[in-house]
Amino acid sequence: MSFPSTRLSIVQRTRSADEDTRRLAFATLIDAYWKPAYKYLRLKWRLSPDEAADLTQEFFTTTLENDVLGRFDPSRARFRTYLRLCLDGFAANAKKAEGRLKRGGGTLTIPLDFTSAEGEISSHEPSVPADLDELFYREWVRALFERAIDDLRVEATRSGRAAAFAAFEQYDLADSPERPTYATLAARLGSTSATITNHLAAMRRDLRAHVLRRLRELTTSDEEYEAEAHRLLGIVR
User: Fold this and answer.
1) DSSP letters of 33-97?
2) CA gap 108, 121 in Å, rounded
3) Closest to 33 in 3D by CA, of 117, 101, 92, 123
């Protein structure tokens, strides 16, 4: 698997002189990190769903307003680690001011689906590892793959490969303890085992490419990108 070409990261684009570029970059960052942040607040800081939702909203709004991203130094830490440390500091300050955790709403300005995030916590019952960076990383990876799968679904539909994605969805993404056999899946989809094999191979390859594309956007240097790609997918240049 070849590496995507170097391009400006999302973090770099938040500093663009073009307002539309900045707005899109911030929206992409929020999309990538809000769910890991929410789950981290729920699990590590033991906040209620309402408290965690309020604080997640406020954290990202404050991050944008106070230029926290502008103070990020890629030579000192990975962006994911930097953001988690900022979140810890934000939560600690909020804990000191108990009123901020008991607002029960406040001014919500970013439309986020906290219900789905809470449902994932309930259904997966995630443990809290001793390494807090590992907790944030685990949820960041989950969110990264969710977005990459969404990209794959859209691409497959647009390119007339909905049948291939259906096979992939029912075999690789099914939330079931047992996968269907290729023959069973072929019969279900009106196909053949050979076609199912080809569909799955193509979708897995394309998903990998979408994951790498999003990973390239979310990392701030070639070195960070290559390290993340190796840890996540075992890829080396």
Assistant:
1) HHHHHHHHHHHTS---HHHHHHHHHHHHHHHHHTTTGGG--TTTS-HHHHHHHHHHHHHHHHHHS
2) 22
3) 117
Share of the chain above pLDDT 90, in %: 53
Domain of 31 in residue numbering reads as: 10-233
Which pTM was predicted?
Answer: 0.83
pLDDT at 177 exceeding the cut of 60: yes
User: 């590496």: which residue's tokens?
Assistant: 3
How many of the other CB atoms lie within 10 Å of CB of 133? Answer: 13
Q: Is residue 80 part of a domain?
A: yes
**What's the rounded Cα separation, in Å, for the pair 57 and 51?**
10
> Residue 161 domain-assigned?
yes
Write out the E strands in the chain. Answer: none
Chain centroid to Cα 143, Å, comes to 2
